[in-house]
Amino acid sequence: MKKILFSFLFVFLLLVVTLFIKTASFKSKQISTAEGIRIDYPIDEAAVKHLSDAVKINTVSFDDTTIVNQLASDSFFAFLRTEYPSVFENLEDTIINKRSLLLKWKGKNESINPVIFYAHLDVVPIEESTKAKWKYAPFSGNVADGFIWGRGTLDDKGSLIAIFEALKKMQHNQFIPSRTIYFAFGSDEEIGGSNGAKVIAEYFRQQKTRFEFYLDEGGMVSRGLVPNMTRPVALIGTAEKGYITLDLTVNAKGGHSSHPDKETALDILVSAVKKVHDNPEERRAVATVNEFMNFVGPEMSFPLKTVFANRWLFEPLILNEYEKSAEGLALLRTTSALTIMNAGLKENVIPSLVNAKINFRILPDENSDQVQQRVVKIVDDDRVKITRGEVYEPSKQSSTTALGFNLLQKTCATIFPDAIVSPFLMLGSTDSKHFQDLTDNTYRFFPVRMDAELLETVHGINERIGVKDYMETIAFYESLFQSLE
Ligand SMILES: [Zn+2]
User: N or C: which terminus of the chain carries fewer CB neighbours within 10 A?
Assistant: First the structure.
């Protein structure tokens, strides 16, 4: 008995020592470990007016691609040329495919790889039924209550105009970067980017350009979004999930609903769709999510720091916690969502041809072929034809030790001294997918503070950017460009 007790005690002590050693060696990856105080940048009224005016130019992209608003792009470019003459004087500008803009800021040393900053100038439409819920009209660009209001302020004109403001200041100071910096502004990110980003990327492909790094929208300086973190977290997207829509089609005997077959086309389809829904993938923490935990874990207090430092033991606990929210769950598996069903025309007629679309967001450790094979296996019914719709493979994972990440991290430490920095996995899709092969390092980060409430306004109601937050965004870009001297 005594012997057993001693072995238990020994194992327990060993465990405590292991937990302790692991926690002690779980070192912070932050540049400055002490929490700084938020900086108050003076309000630049001209910059506020510029963003407000940019919102007023309605650059909505519609899913119906036959609706192209050339006039909006033309007026947007005319606005930029009028308001930022020094930028257009010193940088070389090219219009790509009529509606996208490319600027080249020639560096001192053309033998080193250039970098590229990207923003899109289109916005999503306003749902008719939500119009009345906006506090200020969505294209008013109203400045009130400490915010600039309107569609595009957070996605993505706030970033675009902040880049121009920073560029303007730097022309004033006659700054010339050491490496060439490109700025690309695509016309149609909200509908996939095939006429904007895709064409811009092709332009660079033909020139055989390789970028040191690429920066696009994506993460932000989040407040209260990372569970158990009190400090703001600057989330820099270092990988992006893939995308595939699978089309499930069943063609069977139709006819009068008074004498149906045992299983109609619709019955077969519904059962297939349900099988897919009921058989989700095993949850798992992919490399980017593990890296995220390595960045945020050391900043947590006891006992959470110990939990994150000892994931060999506690990973299931952490995943259980993440799994509680839809966003958290989406980090842990390839998700599937039934988005469209087409079937039936009349209540007393059995439809013969029925179809469903299931949209999958693919984790970076698998690809679209694997997802399709898995679905075929789960459905396991030859009567269901499964074909692929639109596909984007998941991105590669970008480095957290390369120049681009280092500069972003340093700039965050300067401009957002109260925040910590972490890589993270982007759940949604950005135009960066078109540039995948042109660089090893793609980062997705819009340097602006956002909490859950503001995040909700993106593509939603009452989209707005804090005036003080926007000043930080401008300061961030200025500081980042400066670090490319
Ligand atoms: Zn966007």
Answer: N
